[in-house]
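Bit of a strange request maybe. I'm writing a small parser for structure token strings and I need a real example to test against, not something I typed by hand. Could someone generate the tokens for this chain?
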Amino acid sequence: MNHDLIDEPTYYDENAEAFFAETVAVDMTPLYARFLAHLPPGAAILDAGCGSGRDTLAFRQRGYALTALEPSAPLARLAEAHCGLPVAVLRVQDVQWAERFDGIWACASLLHVPLAELPGVLGRLARALRPGGVLYASFKYGAGEREQRGRRFTDLDEAGLVELLRAVPELTVAETWTTADRRPGREAERWLNAMMLG
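Reply from user aminoacidic:
Good idea to test on real output. This should exercise your parser:
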């Protein structure tokens, strides 16, 4: 396994507690509603890059069957303590499941994958979905790759997403929409949200 391809775990390893504190209480209810509308009660959900474990816990409390992964071991430990479930220390580039999940939730996680690796990652996630499953992903709104305070970002807009999915025929876009950041003081930051069907 080549961990040189990604530099984010270093940032999240060093800042796990601060990141946890900054994100764990953010209210994501409007996004949950749009995602869960595509899923049957009790559906199997993969939280791909679960961060603080906030969303894993929210879905678990709503009666869904959760699997969570997080590439940063210190952050995964904090997430486990918060959500009460095991969190696999795993990168999305290394996902191997096949037809295991009804839904995959990739909230603000795939944006750290280099653009050249995103088609392969989306293909892996598509294979992890059961037929008719749904994948939610969010990216900072924009175009291109950048580095900011030790983290790599791949920004996407609607056109960039369409171009990206040309290489991932297993997925089709059901809807896209933009939202403001839900963290206090970050409302000026825009996000591209995408619901994709397998």
